[in-house]
Each structure stands twice: as structure tokens, then as C-alpha cells.
Design goal:
mainly alpha; about 180 residues; elongated; 2 domains
Length: about 180
């Protein structure tokens, strides 16, 4: 399933980049944006791994914070008993959902205030991680090879995936383990 999602995300990017590389003229807005014009004659430029890893630290850290927020949100939904054993003085009015809802349909799921706050922070951190990952990829005035762009995309995706997984599994899978 993950492979299918990766193919759906990266395959259109590769097709767009290949199409832009075939154009290879300065009048093409796609080729100009990806800096794929054939003006660089130095083909022996090596990829700077230190720069790529340094640029992936911020998105990875933000994704980690998003994973922690998501893991805590799932913990208060599915492992309340473990949560309140770890934090016995926690405010139950904030962390747990109300037992009854007035004027609500019978099939409505009540969520706590903490669930809403954690969902918002989860989404905000994840969106910020993705945005901070794309900023270094769009550098105006710098011409890079297609392989270098793809390596940057791969490093950013790896940092976000690894950061989110470590944050979520560390919180939900280990800290609030039954």
C-alpha cells in the first residue's frame, strides 16, 4: 500500500520533469522553474549530501512534532486508562470527552477539547513540515541537475516519513503501551 502511494506521488513529478527536460529552452516556464535549461556544461558536479541532510532537519523535526501530537491524540482516544495512569493529576474535563451531548444526533461521536487541540497541532505541524521541505527545492537562480533535484526530494520525503513515524510510534506505541 505504501509503495502504491509513493508511486502515485512521485510518478507524476518524474513525468513532469522529463517533459520539461525535453523542452530544454528558456521560454518554457516549467523548464525555467525546475532549472533544467541545457546551459550548464559542467556535468561532473557531485551532489552535496551534507547540504541535503542539513535542509531535511527542519521538515523532519516538524514531522516528528506532528507524529507526537497524533500519537497523543490517538492515546487519549484508545488508551485512556494508560494515559491517566501516567498522568494521574490530569484535568479529566479537558482530556476526556463528555458522556452526553445535548441536542446531538444519536450517532455523533463526542470529542474532547484536547482531541480538537491535538488534531489542529497535528495538521499544522505536518503542513508546515511539507511547506518547509518544498522551500529548498525551489531555488531561483540556481541550476541543478535533475538527479540532484530528485535526491533532494527523496531526502525530504525520507526525513518527513521517518520523523513522523518515530514521533507517532514513540508516543502511541511505546510511551502509552498497554
Amino acid at each position: 500500500m505504501k509503495f502504491f502511494a509513493i508511486v502515485l506521488v512521485f510518478f507524476p513529478m518524474l513525468l513532469t520533469a522529463q517533459f520539461a527536460a525535453k523542452l530544454q529552452n528558456a521560454s518554457s516556464p516549467v523548464a525555467a522553474e525546475l532549472h533544467l535549461n541545457n546551459t550548464n556544461t559542467n556535468n561532473n558536479v557531485k551532489y552535496n549530501w551534507k547540504r541535503g541532510i542539513r535542509q531535511a532537519i527542519l521538515p523532519g523535526t516538524l514531522a516528528f512534532a506532528s507524529g507526537v501530537s497524533g500519537g497523543l491524540r490517538e492515546s487519549i482516544l484508545w488508551r485512556k486508562d494508560v494515559f491517566f495512569k501516567r498522568f494521574p493529576n490530569a484535568n479529566r474535563n479537558f482530556w476526556t470527552a463528555p458522556n452526553t451531548l445535548k441536542d446531538a444526533p444519536a450517532n455523533a461521536q463526542p470529542y474532547s477539547k484536547a482531541h480538537k487541540v491535538l488534531t489542529t497541532t497535528h495538521n499544522a505541524f505536518l503542513a508546515t513540515a511539507v511547506i518547509s521541505a518544498t522551500i529548498p527545492l525551489v531555488k531561483h537562480g540556481k541550476k541543478e541537475k535533475l538527479g540532484h533535484k530528485l535526491a533532494d526530494i527523496g531526502l525530504q520525503a525520507l526525513a518527513i516519513s521517518l520523523g513522523y513515524s518515530l514521533g507517532f510510534e514513540g508516543t502511541f506505541g511505546h510511551f502509552f503501551k498497554r
